[in-house]
Amino acid sequence: MQAPELTIVLPAFNESKNIEPLVGKIADAMGQIAHEVIVVDDNSPDDTTGVTRRLAAKHPHVRCIRRVGRRGLSGACIEGMMAANAPVVVIMDADMQHDETRLPTMLDEIKNGADLVIGSRYVDGGDHKAGFNQKTRAKGSEIATTMANYITGHYTSDPMSGFFMLTRQTADKAAETVSKDGFKILFDIVSRYGDTLKIKEVPFQFRERVEGESKLGFLVTIQFFGLLVSRFTGGLIPMRFMLYALVGFTGLFVHMATLFALHYGANVDFAVAQFAGAFAAMTSNFILNNSVTYAHRKLKGNRFWIGLLTFYAVCSVGALANVSIAQSLFELNQSTLFAGFAGALMNAVFNYAVTKLVTWRDT
Ligand SMILES: Nc1nc2c(ncn2[C@@H]2O[C@H](COP(=O)(O)OP(=O)(O)O)[C@@H](O)[C@H]2O)c(=O)[nH]1
Ligand SMILES: [Mg+2]
């Protein structure tokens, strides 16, 4: 077997029906160019790994990385890239939405000196409409792309693409820093290294998914917006803190709704209603943080209840500290706005930092 010129990384979750036909299409498209295919499966229940291994038994250029106990597109892409044998690596959906016939053209761009070649749905000759089964998703993608472009500085027309090729050197550099649990690894790479990389674009037509389902749901979208805002601050504010703050904001509404319902609706004493409001807000914050902010470390069963108790405890300490700090600041300069805001901000940062470690043990 010849040493591969290109490693094709296919992150896959429940793609058992797509692997074999895609590997065939890739072989047709690559022709004489020696290549290898690495499927990175996060232990899919549909046995994507088994399908890949059976295929690998017949085709030695195919390999499977099966990850157990981990989920996440960016992390899967990084592991695939790090296992590559070729000097050039491409990331591609395993669902045949990306056009494999563009691979040789993309490889030529790398040979001509590009560090990163992006399969773009938004450049002339590219198209994205067919690939999105709903109008709202096409629109959502357009809006996110505009925002992402604004943040990355317009290095590319399609920073949200999941189809891109890069030199292994670039991949090695990126692996050190990019977020392992996002969905949009390209955006992460471009926003960090955009001005040091030679970037080229190759248009492609985004196809409709035939088999299986899209994994990009509500959760992924919310997480992505967290990442966008985080990048907007130059990475100063972590993505998870953004999500945590967003959840905190919803907690405010839960608190007020409970307070009003109990106090006006059920004639409960103000102090008791206020206390119940705080409890309701902490509970809903915990549940939301557990399934959105810390989806990758979601607590279940007994650990859910223990987590909830630690969450109450930390938030209570945070609230006490909030009041005492705000009080001292208020005595210092008499500004209600400043003292109140500083106390609340300190409270949020404290709760975030401590529950991250204590409740979700996310180090
Ligand atoms: N290994 C792994 N692959 C994933 C994960 N989430 C999505 N994928 C794969 O990443 C590719 C893009 O995901 P897809 O659901 O098609 O997103 P969409 O094209 O934006 O709808 C597909 O090949 C998925 O199977 C994951 O958590 N782990
Ligand atoms: Mg897809």
From TrEMBL:
Residues 7-166 form the Glycosyltransferase 2-like domain. It is a multi-pass membrane protein. Signal peptide: none annotated. The keyword Transferase applies. The chain crosses the membrane at residues 216-234, 241-264, 270-292, 304-325, 337-354. It is found in: Membrane. Residues 244-360 form the GtrA/DPMS transmembrane domain. SUPFAM superfamilies: Nucleotide-diphospho-sugar transferases. Its main location: membrane. Pfam families: Glycos_transf_2, GtrA_DPMS_TM. The keyword Transmembrane helix applies. InterPro entries: DPM1-like, Glyco_trans_2-like, GtrA_DPMS_TM, Nucleotide-diphossugar_trans. Keywords: Glycosyltransferase, Membrane, Transferase, Transmembrane, Transmembrane helix. Belongs to the glycosyltransferase 2 family. This is Glycosyltransferase family 2 protein. It comes from Ahrensia kielensis. The lineage of its organism: Bacteria, Pseudomonadati, Pseudomonadota, Alphaproteobacteria, Hyphomicrobiales.
